[in-house]
Amino acid sequence: MAQLRTSDGSTFLSRSRDSLDRFTGSYPARFAIMVFAAMNLLFMLLFMTPWASATGEPTGPVDAFFQAVSVVCVTGLTVVDMSTHWSPFGNAVVLLGVQVGGIGVLTLASILGLTVARKLGLRQKLMAASDSNPSRVRKGVVKEGQAIRLGEVGGLLRTVALSVLVFEAALIVLLYPRILLEGKNPLQALYEATYWSFMAFTNSGFVPTPEGLDPYATDPWFLIVLVLGVFTGSLGFPVYFVLLRHLGRPRQWSLHVKLTISVSLLLFLLGGLSFLVLEWGNPDSWGTDGFGQQLLHAFFLSSMARSGGFALEDLGLLHNSSLLVTDMLMFVGGGSASTAGGIKVTTLAILFLAAIAEARGRKSMEAFGRRIPSDVLRLAVSVTLWSATIVAGVTIVLLEITGAPLSFVLFDVISAFATVGLSTGFTHPGLEDPAKIILAITMFVGRIGSVTLAAALAASQTTQLFTRPEERPIVG
């Protein structure tokens, strides 16, 4: 069949491809958001089908939209019972959705292209690189040393695919025997082990059974395996890439890797110790259990608050001080280009390094024998302020809609924005539809990242060819 041609002799297909290339090149942030939004809508339609529901009845559009966004954004908040509401087809969609969301839509597309075509074009490399370093969505020079060089993107994609397969398979092997001990038949145990594995590594936090973690609430083996799965997933694929190349040579690790690992471990320890002290003696949580169980529960929550999403207790019964610490940990989140959310641990590290440099009277930030340029600080401040503004605005709106307590609303809003999935009970099936929609949009915005969103909203970026007179306002 002859292809339709325009007046200049080109086909509509070629002109459409050229238009797409120009759009992705000129507005990479908008293209990334469009692709991710389309993926969320696709999963919403799948969840609305009668085949996805255990009862055979279609799921309402609002609930389907909320759960689709929660799944693809690897959040873990629910307005339906995830263990009983979905059919086998629906559960398969859930498992597929968290994998797509955890790996990254653009990264996954590039992996598939690499698998099929055996090579990557420049556009595929740029798309994958934008998933590994949000700074690339901004026009202008981006220092390649900050993350992954374009020539290394193929290796990064192989690392992503390999790490997902290896880590999730290892988690399945570790969890499977323990689930068998609960009396589950081998096939059911394999399904549950796979479900727990996927949810731990992708930091999603959904549970496969109505009883959830209750059978394993005092089991160190099961809980520690989940913690390890969540922690490895929250480090980020660029970290795996560097570690695989220089596993026994820490001196050759990049500054990003060193900051991510050190700050993640520090937050895990400080969070666990804080929960241990603050919940001491609280009969509604673990405060009156044996010391070993208190340690286990405190550090389990410290790990889950960074984006894991699994909960052993009713978080609404924790002391308000513990809820505030959890808010802080959730807001920070995990590593860049990881399955975790939040403003990222490197953002927090940059802000503290800037404060230390200012206190010492130094002109630049330094860490691990490296100097950090000032433009990185500007980006860190921008991410933090945009994120705090979004959280505050959404919290105010939801307080007006629901009339719920501030501590509960703020907790769930941060959990949604940081794609954590923990809840005080504010997010539930009876929540008003407008509140569900707002929380779903919050999850979406939190997952795509404030840097990508800001770049997408910018109508244009122009080069300033002049410098205005300098004047210092009073600060502090």
Automatic annotation (TrEMBL):
Pfam families: TrkH. GO terms for biological process: metal ion transport. The keyword S-adenosyl-L-methionine does not apply. One of its GO terms (cellular component) is plasma membrane. Its main location: membrane. Signal peptide: none annotated. InterPro entries: Cat_transpt. This is Trk-type K+ transport system membrane component. It comes from Agrococcus jenensis. The lineage of its organism: Bacteria, Bacillati, Actinomycetota, Actinomycetes, Micrococcales.
